[in-house]
Amino acid sequence: MTDDELLTKLDDSTRNATRHQIDALRSILDQNGSVAYLQPYLPPHNTPQDAAAFRRSVPLSTYDDYAEFINQMADTPHIQHQQPLLSVDPLLCFFYSSGTSSPRPKLIPYFDSKLSKGASFIAHQGGSAILRRLFPPRPSVNKIMWFIYADNVTTTRGGFKVMAASTYPLQSGNANWSQLSFISSPREVILGSNVEHQMYCHLLCGLRNCDSIDAVRAPYAIGLIKVFRLLESKWEQMCNDLEHGILSLEIADVAMRDSVVDVLGGPQPDLAKRLRTVFEGKSWSGIVSKLWPNARYVKCVATGSMEQYYPKLKHYAGEIPLLGGDYFASECCVGINLDIMQPPEKTKFVLLPTAAYFEFLPFDMNETNDAGTETVDISGVEVGKMYQVLVTTYRGFYRYHLGDIVRVVGFYNLSPEVEFVMRAPKGPGEIITEKDLMSAMQSFQLMLENAMATEITEFASFLDTELSPKQLKVFAEVGERCMLFTQEKIEDSLVVLRRCCSSVEDGLGGIYKVQRDRGEAGPLLLYVVKSGSFDRLSQVAIGNGAPASQYKPPKIIRNREIVWLLEESALVTIS
């Protein structure tokens, strides 16, 4: 299928959005209406074919409603599976969710569904067609420095592989590596097992091929931020490696090490000298075009919790455009970004009416309980209103809370255009949202920069309900070169931080303010933690099975294990 044919098919699906939604639900129920999960709600041979009857019969669900079925599937060998629990299609493997509030990711079953493959094909290939239309391939500058990691693959008790969704094409056994020859790193780097070593090698290979690099890519903005931080700290070592044609970093993975040495192709003294001149200029603004002069774009997801990294990425990218990503979840494709040149605050996604059956639960920031609220379908949403997204998928989730809040900003043909607002609160006990926290910390960052020239590199919050009254804890990580908490400067620093702490409280939203005024929540506790603390969290999460390629630092923490790690790293605590 040509790019024009793909985009025409994508456009046609949005012109008949309601019909495609009806067809999608009918196909899902025809295929999976008899599975164990649906049996209590859909009597045998009486599967409702219309959406209204389906919504009356089947309750809304969350991951907890599927956990028992998923654990049973994970623990039972394939040949012993008798009755289909969630889908009649064969179970291939499990994907890790990309959620970040817990150090252990959830398991998302991945079934061999022809219907789902057909639906997701248009989404994935349509996005690629949009990119090629903006940046047609060039024969001479044809490499992408793509920071992808195949991640460690684990195995369940029942013998099923578990991996990141983005890893599946690389680990499924059907990977066509010849089609990935445009990536500047060899396959051994992608398949490595140490993320920091892989990142170093990705960078080194990209520098070796600097004149052939057409683009820089990563799944999420945080991934590229880590890349440039590593480059800032290791550029001298990388230049030495290029100069001598060796890999000085202690890498135990022999295959990865040897493959990178092959890419270096012997000593490159002229290239090393040229790159040193760039680095010794000590200007990281626009560093992408200085190192990779033919690069045309940088691409990653920078919406939602990734939006905080956009200004720093823009600093590194300079005049090179930062392109956004699509709205894909581990459970299903949701929406496609037709205008990838837009910054995060203007990014909108067109809902894909063939990807799943969508419902929308009205959401109000000032309401703590949505009980009794009815969902609306794709044709019932209103521009300007916010909704929680629910999906019924081809792969075993039914009226499932995806966990996202979106705002409808318009329509593309007859399909809603939405902007991502935030992750949904987990319950009525939560008193701030990710959006509240990000807004408050943005102000905090500006105050610190003006008063102390200090950079906040990462942050998160935790509501401690074991205290009386409950108390919000905010953790802020300072930059590596911060010297403000030495014995000579600590007193002055504390004065500024107390003032900043008050500013953070003022920006945490209406629900927090009301509960503070009523005495239902105690004063804010601000922990300034040392550089590298959030990297330690990522190491713990990856060690527990979270995929490196999908890891996102938590913003709203709901697990005490994470809190203990951050509290141990505190340089100072302000209340």
TrEMBL record:
<dbReference type="Pfam" id="PF23572">
    <property type="entry name" value="GH3_C"/>
</dbReference>
<comment type="similarity">
    <text>Belongs to the IAA-amido conjugating enzyme family.</text>
</comment>
<protein>
    <submittedName>
        <fullName>Indole-3-acetic acid-amido synthetase GH3.6</fullName>
    </submittedName>
</protein>
<keyword id="KW-0436">Ligase</keyword>
<dbReference type="Pfam" id="PF03321">
    <property type="entry name" value="GH3"/>
</dbReference>
<dbReference type="InterPro" id="IPR004993">
    <property type="entry name" value="GH3"/>
</dbReference>
<feature type="domain" description="GH3 C-terminal">
    <location>
        <begin position="435"/>
        <end position="561"/>
    </location>
</feature>
<dbReference type="GO" id="GO:0016881">
    <property type="term" value="F:acid-amino acid ligase activity"/>
</dbReference>
<dbReference type="InterPro" id="IPR055377">
    <property type="entry name" value="GH3_M"/>
</dbReference>
<dbReference type="GO" id="GO:0005737">
    <property type="term" value="C:cytoplasm"/>
</dbReference>
<feature type="domain" description="GH3 middle">
    <location>
        <begin position="349"/>
        <end position="423"/>
    </location>
</feature>
<dbReference type="InterPro" id="IPR055378">
    <property type="entry name" value="GH3_C"/>
</dbReference>
<dbReference type="Pfam" id="PF23571">
    <property type="entry name" value="GH3_M"/>
</dbReference>
